[in-house]
Amino acid sequence: MITFKTTLGDIKIELDFDNAPVTAKNFQQYAEDGFYNGTIFHRVIKGFMAQGGGFASGMDEKVSREAIKNEANNGLSNARGTLAMARTQDPHSASAQFFINLVDNDFLNFKSEDMHGWGYCVFAKVVEGMDVVDKMTLIDTGRMGFHDDVPKEEILIKETLVE
Q1: Which residues pair with 122 in a beta bridge?
Q2: 136 near 44, Cβ under 8 Å?
Q3: What is the distance between the alpha carbons of residues 6 and 128, in angstroms, rounded to a whole number?
Q4: What CA–CA distance (Å, rounded) separates 127 from 125?
Q5: What is the DSSP code (8-state) at residue 156?
Q6: 3-class SS at 120?
Q7: Which residues, including other chains, have CB under 8 Å from residue 150's CB and lie 6 or more apart?
Q8: Is the pLDDT confidence value at 26 over 90?
Q9: Average pLDDT over the chain, rounded to whole?
C-alpha cells in the first residue's frame, strides 16, 4: 500500500504485483526512494485522467531510471480509479510517470503487441481518496511551456508513505 499525501488530501494506492509484477515493483521502488515527494500532478484532463510523477514544483523535469517493459497485456483494464504507466510513442518507454484514470478509458487497453496496440499498463488502483483525485479536475488548467492541461494551482505530492 502506498499513500500520497497531497495538497488536496490523501490518496491510498494498492499495487497489483500478481498481474503487473515489474511495473508494481518499479513504482514501489520510486515510492520507497522518495522520488515522488515534491512532484506535482502536471497534466489533468477532466473526463480523462490525472498524470504525475515526472515533474517537481515549477514544472522542473525529474531524471528517472531506465524504462521498463510494458506489461499492458496483463488483462487489466484502464477503468476509473486505476493507475497506469505514462509513456511516449515507444510502448516500452515507461519509467516514473503514471496517471490515474478518472473514467473508464477502454481505448487505452492492450489490443496487440505492435506499436498501435500495446496500450497502457494498469498496475494499481486507488482504494481511498478518489474524491481527492476528482478534486483535481476542479482546478483551472492552461499551457506552461510545451505542456498543455497544467493545473494553474500546483497539486503537490508532499510525502509518500509505503506500508
Answers
A1: 84
A2: yes
A3: 13
A4: 6
A5: B
A6: coil
A7: 42, 43, 59, 141, 142, 143, 144
A8: yes
A9: 97
Cell of 32: 520507497
Residue in the structure block whose three cell numbers are 498524470: 51
Q: DSSP state, 135?
A: H
Give phi and psi for 84, each to the nearest 5: -135, 160
Report all structural domains of the chain as residue ranges with CATH numbers, in order of start.
2-162 (2.40.100.10)
State the Cα–Cα distance between residues 105 and 77, nearest whole angstrom. 8
Predicted local distance difference test score (pLDDT) of residue 34: 98
DSSP per position, 16-81: -TTT-HHHHHHHHHHHHTTTTTTEEEEEEETTTEEEEEEEETTTEEPP--------GGGS----TT
Residue 51 one-letter amino acid: Q
Q: Closest by alpha carbon to 139, among 131, 149, 151, 157? A: 151
